[in-house]
Recover the amino acids of this structure.
């Protein structure tokens, strides 16, 4: 049973972006602001993320982990939909949104895979089943880690683009 509580702990990255704006406008700048607002409105903000992280950290059973993972998936789902609904003026910001969209899409499918394992603490798994669960969980974790790394790189790209256009983006 010990293996099931093995590290799903680092689910939850979510580098929340917070915007500090300076004057003077251009299209890239207004696109970045649009993206930032959509992210915030989708519920992707520091306090929401921290609540989800706490829930993951507090999870004592596979069932609680699964519940927390499902909430995280739902949060990413609304973020994913919010950023995909945007229509940008500039290719630069559109390209960044497309990357973030791909990364969040990957994350959602990984979380789905984990949630669908539907691990139960009171079930005794056969060695074959246990092995299958273990393989899936390892794959899911690796996919989540990759998605986190890529998202951070994309956000840094957005931050640099912002800097060139008078928008100061803080990555938490």
């Amino acid at each position: 049973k010990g293996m099931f509580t093995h590290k799903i702990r680092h689910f939850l990255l979510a580098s929340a972006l917070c915007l500090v704006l300076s004057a003077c406008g251009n299209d890239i700048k207004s696109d970045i602001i649009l993206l930032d607002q959509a992210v915030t409105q989708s519920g992707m903000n520091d306090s929401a993320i921290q609540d989800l992280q706490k829930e993951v950290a507090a999870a004592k059973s596979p069932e609680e982990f699964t519940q927390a993972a499902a909430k995280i998936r739902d949060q990413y789902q609304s973020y994913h939909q919010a950023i995909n609904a945007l229509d940008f003026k500039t290719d630069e910001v559109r390209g960044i949104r497309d990357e973030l969209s791909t990364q969040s899409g990957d994350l959602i499918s990984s979380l789905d895979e984990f949630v669908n394992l539907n691990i139960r603490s009171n079930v005794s798994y056969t060695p074959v089943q246990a092995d299958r669960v273990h393989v899936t969980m390892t794959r899911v974790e690796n996919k989540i880690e990759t998605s986190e790394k890529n998202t951070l790189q994309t956000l840094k790209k957005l931050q640099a683009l912002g800097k060139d256009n008078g928008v100061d983006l803080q990555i938490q």
Notes: The first strand starts at residue 17 and ends at 21. Residues 30 and 41 are 16 Å apart (CA to CA).
